[in-house]
Design a protein that fits this description.
The chain is mostly helical. It has 14 helices and two strands, in the order βααααααααααααααβ. It has one domain (about 15-70, about 75-305).
Amino acid sequence: MTPPVLPATEPSSNVSRVAVSMLCLVAGAVALGVSPLFVRFADVGPLTSAFWRVMLALPALWLWTRIEVGGRRDGDAPPWTRATVLAGLFFAGDLVFWHLAIMHTTVANATFLATMAPVWVILASGLVIREAVPREAVSGLLLCLLGAALLIGFSYSYAPERLDGDGFGVITSMFFGAYVLAMRVARRSAPPGLLMFRSGLVTAAVLFVVAVVMEDKTLPSSWAGLASLLALALLAHSAGQGLLSFALGHLTAAFSSLVMFLEALTAAIAGWLVLSEALSAAQAFGGAAIVAGLWVARPRRARVSKR
């Protein structure tokens, strides 16, 4: 992916837009962080749940698009771009390999390796999307990595029979990192709802084929399973990914990608509150390190895109 040079962002005295974007980023991370709970309660296969997560979100995303377009005709909407299609493909890859990692290695291994996504974003931002990475983002990344190691890294275990699953976890992080970069580019020319709807069409099409080929059960057999899928669609995808998409229009890809660590923190807290999973002192310190890393990496100036 070699996109054209992006329009330069410019300093602005309007700090509120950046503040709102940061709040949206945090809210989106919380919504995404609780999604594993709903996957656990859905009575379909994990890849099928990923398909329904996106497919059932499309009507809500279409309504969001209608609100954005307003009274304009469809012909006045921004055209499809390569970055939008790539965002859909990359997100499909992220979900597929995430679930493959869960099925072939431990949840701790899969989660820890998936949190490497910000590493790829920071390494590729300058080269791929020509967006400078501030020194504070690198420092914040190091703190977040320390926090992730304390939060879930102690549960990581190596075993030769799980090597494939660990590899799937690394691939998951690469796909999510590529998704963040593609969505950051796409947000320079189109609003978030439209991008979420269009990229969702691509993601749903890919996941439908994968689910049909790899799993037998495609429909939930209980109301609880259906409710879990609806929660995945509305909370995790429409709200969580939607808020991330909005934030990517106003915050750098490097800082926005650090939301991955906040997802891990939210998942740990949700497991503690809902599933009575214990949290150690080291994990609590790890959560504090993640929060500190996000604080260190926060934008120092209101660098806001023209859209």
